[in-house]
Amino acid sequence: MLHAVGLVAVAVVSGLVWWLIRSGGGVSGEPAAPTPANPLTSGEFSYTVVAGPQTSTDCAGNAYGDVANWFVQHPCERVVRALYTTRSGEARALVSVVVVTMPTATQAQQLKLITDTDGTGNVNDLVRDGTASLPGAPSVAGGEYHSKSEGKEVTIVESEFYGDHADDALLTRIGSDALRLSEALRS
């Protein structure tokens, strides 16, 4: 009889432990901490890393045009660059994501303003500067452009389709969606 009581007690404790594990182990009334979403797969499009991330503190050396000259006068704290691919049906796009951290939020807003202006240059993507060798890669600098400024950070996204695929609305959606990839470059 004592043996049966011991087995029941083990079963009850095991069940309680299993319930705590499955429910997140939170205290009653307290929600379990949410699992962070994977920025590569949590949005409208899923992305695959093809180059990078590459981190530097030399923004001027990783930029071109007026943007490079601006960085000489306003050095950044850090620049992180990466390349991704994504697909939608038969369409395949190359996406460059750059996250620049400036010393102040004001300088980040100034950087966004200059990069948002046509003909001023930008931060090099990893193919443009020769860091990544991707035969047949499209020039993302000639494709879709999106940017955002949050605090001291500016995220710059450029994207273009491989081959002769043309769908401006789809490329706009890809570029806008890819702004969330800045999360992957912060870690």
What is the secondary structure topology, with strand pairs?
Blueprint: H1 2-22, E1 48-56, E2 63-64, H2 65-73, E3 78-88, E4 91-101, H3 105-116, E5 122-123, E6 144-150, E7 153-161, H4 168-177, H5 182-186
Antiparallel strand pairs: 1-3, 2-5, 3-4, 4-7, 6-7
Briefly characterize the structure.
The protein has 187 residues and is of the alpha+beta class. 30% of the residues lie in helices and 27% in strands.
Task: Tell me about this structure.
The chain is of the alpha+beta class and 187 residues long. It has one domain (47-184). It is built from five helices and seven strands, in the order αββαββαβββαα. It has helices at 2-22, 65-73, 105-116, 168-177, 182-186, and strands spanning 48-56, 63-64, 78-88, 91-101, 122-123, 144-150, 153-161. The strands form two sheets. Strands 1-3-4-7-6 form a five-stranded antiparallel β-sheet. Strands 2-5 form a two-stranded antiparallel ribbon. Strand 3 and strand 4 form a beta hairpin. The longest helix has 21 residues, at 2-22. Mean pLDDT is 85; it is low at 2-30.
Element string (H = helix, E = strand): HEEHEEHEEEHH
- Shape type: globular
Poorly predicted tracts of residues:
2-30
Largest sheet: 5 strands, antiparallel
Q: Supply the helix-strand structural class.
A: alpha+beta
Order of the strands making up the biggest sheet? 1-3-4-7-6
Mean pLDDT: 85
Work out the count of structural domains.
1
Give the strand content.
Answer: 25-35%
List keywords for this structure.
5 helices, two-stranded antiparallel ribbon, five-stranded antiparallel beta sheet, 187 residues, alpha+beta
